[in-house]
C-alpha cells in the first residue's frame, strides 16, 4: 500500500468525539468514556470508603444503647416523625399562668401611663402642627356685646398673640418686661419641629397603652373561660376589644 493511498484513506476517516453527558443525568454518576477512567476510579473508591465507614459505624454501635428518640419517634409512611408531647398542666396551673401574664402586662401598661403623664407635663399640652384647633367660648349678655366683642381686649393682650394658646402675656406684662427666648426664625422652626416630634412620641405611647389595656382584657377573658360555668358568646373578639360572654348566674355561698 502506497503512502499516498494511506494518506487518502486517513483523510476519509471521521474523527472520534466523546459524547457529552446530559446535565439531568449527572446525578446518576459518570458517563462511560474512554478517557475518564481516572475520574471513574476516584468516584468508585470514594463510594467504597463511604460504605466501609458506615459498616464500621454499624459494627461499633452498642445494641443495648438507649436514647429518648426511640420512644419519641415513630415511622409514618416510611418517614420518621417525632411525637409531640402534650403539656400536662392542671386548670389551676393555667389560671395561675394567666394571672402572671395579666400582672406583667398591667405592670407594663402602668409604666407606660406614667411616661405619658410625664410627657404631658413636659409639653404642657401645647398645640402641635396639624393638631385639631381648640375652641374657647366666651359668654356675653347682649347681642350688642357680641357685635362689639374684641378678643384681644377681652384677653388683655395684643392682636398678634391672640391665636396662641400658650405663653400669651398680657399688655401690662409686655410693657413691664422684654420678650425672652429665641426670636430667630430658623431657631423657632427648629423648636416647632422638636415639639412636633414630642407630640408624635406622645401619640405613640397613648396608642401603646391602649393596646396593652386591650391585651389585658383579652387575657382576663381567656382566664374566665377556663371556668366550667355555662356561657354564651354575645360578641366576637375584635382588634380593639375582647370577646363578650354571658355567664350563667350562680349563687355564691
UniProtKB/TrEMBL annotation:
Any Pfam family hit: Utp11
Transmembrane segments: none
Disordered: annotated span: 1-27
Basic residues compositional bias, start-end: 7-17
Main location: nucleus
Cellular localization per UniProt: Nucleus, Nucleolus
Any GO BP annotation: rRNA processing
GO CC, any one term: small-subunit processome
Sorted UniProt keywords: Nucleus, rRNA processing
UniProt record similarity statement: Belongs to the UTP11 family.
PANTHER family assigned to the protein according to its UniProt record, in alphabetical order: U3 SMALL NUCLEOLAR RNA-ASSOCIATED PROTEIN 11 (PTHR12838), U3 SMALL NUCLEOLAR RNA-ASSOCIATED PROTEIN 11-RELATED (PTHR12838:SF0)
Record-given protein name: Probable U3 small nucleolar RNA-associated protein 11
Provenance organism: Pomatostomus ruficeps
